[in-house]
Write the structure tokens for this entry.
Amino acid sequence: MIRSTATTSIPKPISREMMSEREFGFDTQQLHAGQVLDTAHRARAVPIYQSTSFVFKDFASAKAINTIDEFGYEYSRTGNPTNEVLEVRIAALEGGSAALSLASGSAAATYAILNVARAGDEIVAARTLYGGTFSLLAHTLPKHGIKTVFVDPDNSDAFKAALTERTRAIWVETIGNPSGNLVDVEAIARIAEAHGIPLIVDNTFATPYLFRPFDHGAAVVVHSATKYIGGHGNSIGGLIVDGGNFNWANGKFPDFTTPDPCYNGMVHWDRWGNYPGIGNFAFVMKARLQYLRDMGACLSPFNAFLLLVGLETLSFRMERQVKTAQHIAEFLAAHDDVAWVNYAGLKDSPYYDLGKRLFPKGSGAIFTFGIKGGEERAARFVEAVKLFSFLANVGDSKSLIVHPATVTHAQLNAEQQKQVGITPELLRLSIGTEDADDLIWDLEQAFASSRG
Ligand SMILES: *Cc1c(COP(=O)(O)O)cnc(C)c1O
């Protein structure tokens, strides 16, 4: 066996000491989970460890860190103390066993898939997905032998029908981008479980405040932390969260159960499948040791810090944003210049009942509507808004608007756009924390000045 010479830096995945005295609530955990005061200065804010590397204590410890007989920091590509607080905190909020921070949500999606599938394997995915994830699955991964079958997420049985012996994961978004369609995660999780494969859920639009996929049978959660987790539109970042609930030794995932030559013959399931005090965090450890180490899309500690500051107020922002979104959806639904509104919080939405059942705190704060007058009117409208920002992002504290057909989903051809539900008159709103009346004033003046 060749001894691996690559460097590693493996933080201890979840420090449960503080969490063991009491089951703390969401608002408490979003402030405190994962932070252990630094022993030198006892800084209240999480310090930014803007350091590429960490000085070894001694020879024996350097060796132990590299064989992972000891958790410790070595090199910030694979682990950093600031990033670790973010990882532990999001794992606590999602109810998972551990998490991995990455440079972007797209890196999180890529590594999560590579972690379960190799050339010849297949993924079954909802066809209503974020444009970048759709393109990854439809175009980029097939060049490397991983094929995706896309199905209609409104029909849970369609996932079942698409499964084959080669399927290695089902992929859905809790709230689809941009259509705001809700997915019956419970029904799809049962299908995945019966087939012995993980359900991977992109929970970006819901956040753990509105929906915790592990409570409903998902095995892995992925986030674009760029959106609500950071919440202030200042940093790109991504996360993979391990549910700690999937048996990777069921015969379908030999990369977990056979010696890994990338890592001196380590068998990931044996090492991380039932770790004292942590349990099963094999998914995150394998992603860290193989893909983060070899491909390197690490999150900057400075961005981890900004995401942590944002995360402190996640529940408060979401509560307000969902409430305002409901208000604005109702305003638009009653407006003469609006052809239709697609928001699961509206009684005539096909997702209303599912929303009430799975999303009792609300169906998110991103939704779409059709403006009368088609693409030309939509173009005038996005140029007329004053408070809403016309840009390609969601989940900011500031309200945002975009025309998906020409911006976020412009890389799809007309047929694919139709499949994912994008039409020329469709506008997507991401509702922020401004005063609801001010947002309505803005929309009203933009309707008036775009009438032409
Ligand atoms: C933005 C987004 C992504 C990609 O995340 P980045 O941080 O932009 O790389 C993935 N999924 C969803 C649902 C998103 O909204």
Summary: The two ends are 73 Å apart (CA to CA). The longest helix spans residues 314-333. DSSP finds 17 helices and twelve strands in the chain.
